[in-house]
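User: I want to check something. If I give you two sequences, will you return the structure for each one separately, not as a complex?

Assistant: Yes, each is folded on its own. Here is the first sequence with its structure:
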Amino acid sequence: MSDKLSPIINSEALIQLSHSKTIVLIDARAGLNAQENYQKEHLKGARYVDLNKDLATVDCNPKNGGRHPLPSLEKFADVLSKKGISPESHVIIYDDKNGSNAASRFWWMLKAIGHEKVQVLNGGLQEAIKAGFPISSEIEQFEQSNFPVSNWKLAVADIEEVEKARKTNENIVIDVRDKNRFDGLTEPLDLIAGHIPSAINVPFSENLNEDGLYKSPEILKEKYNAILGDINSENVIVHCGSGVTACHTLLAMDYAGIPIPKLYVGSWSEWSRNDREMATKN
């Protein structure tokens, strides 16, 4: 690998960098009571981003783009500026679900606007606390910045492209949800259990070792090269339930030195609400 900044940073390296003025630490926990949990305890200096309010523009009907559609470029630029993130910032993001919560989604979004100085904390909040990173319940003070955003530079796939891709041998559609959801045995979030026909299931959890840390780039590279075979990553579409956890696998592939495939942002939450063909248990 070249001098390119690794998309993953470990807690020890974060501790060494933590006093740098260019570091912007971001808490991207999501789910029930996430912001309250942040206010009770977060890594000292971390600023909070909200998955629903900052990293998506949530429509009342997930049929239109899924449960977490991307925000407009203007809205995202405003979020970055209000969080004090500038084009010079070295952004380090964590959550409490090994990067699968919203840390990898924010990483992908920053990469998608061309920001290269962004990393996800390996093992997240728990690993940093274990390594001795100081925690705080204080309201973090920081100055706002100006972050102009012009366009999304990473490729996304819409529902029509997925429809075409699933019917050819030149494309691979990867579903990163756990096997029970893919198989249609359970569905905790969407209306119908099942998967996009011809998609393959590669659960994001397979990116991690038993300690909840990312496997080595070498292991991940071997794994995904075997899955992709002779298909170029530009012909690979990765999705999940709502375009969040899929970014965990895009991060893993980037960590492995594989070009980042396309993200299907709408994912199963959109597909399953649009009268498309579905593979279900029944």
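And separately, the second sequence with its own structure:
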Amino acid sequence: MTPSTGPAAPSLAPPRVLTVAGSDSGGGAGIQADLKTMLALGAHGMSVLTAVTAQNSVGVQGAWELPADAVRAQYRSVVNDIGVQAVKTGMLASAELVRLAAELLAGTAAPVVVDPVSVSKHGDRLLADEALDAVRTALLPVATVATPNLDETAQLTGVRATDERGMSEAAERLLAFGPRWVLVKGGHLPGEAVDLLTDGAEEHWLRAPRHDNRHTHGTGCTLASAVAVGLAQGLPVPEAVRRAKDYVTGAIAAGFPLGAGLGPVDHGWRLRENR
């Protein structure tokens, strides 16, 4: 008898991770980077679009915030039907959308990774100044892990860290706003790339060699999304963050030129490495 050649039985769905963020038309950061990262690490990525940007390798030429009703409808559509095992937030643009995201996340039983995006890699503003207080008082309290870089840390806490001691002080102030864990990213400091992960009771210093590659667009989005995937897969926070940093370090090393300015990290570096 000839074996059946019909479709294979459906497999179990991979972990489901939702990103609530803005679109980067150049594909290096934002929703696009989030979804690429989720796919690369074995998750099913879903998205709630908060803003649309006209963006390329040299900067952001325009940004348009979506109405709150559209953001809420996207979120409810995904969560109420498909469900989520982790959520990651990125560009939220305004105080109204920050508060809305916090409200939606507070009612969702899943770990939350908050990347408090305020400025693009090119120095363009992606968060209104008046929204910073909403990040402090509404969004950070619902975060399982917050992942600010040093500039974002300074805006939120007033502490401009220039060394590891300053990173510890900034992390302490960030924890006072309510996140369970804080990952202060020290990539802007000289020397090796060092990050601090802490919940106030324990500190994890994560170190990696610094790669001489200027094509690092999307690093923050990629790291936060990678952490969210690890949490969706059931990893403890320190392990999820360590694995995410390893993935991002490889993506930075493989970053490639694109256009006339800063190219993106390579989200598919492992796939290309294994060819």
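Because they were folded independently, the notes below concern the second chain alone. Residues 39 and 216 are 19 Å apart (CA to CA). The first strand starts at residue 16 and ends at 24.
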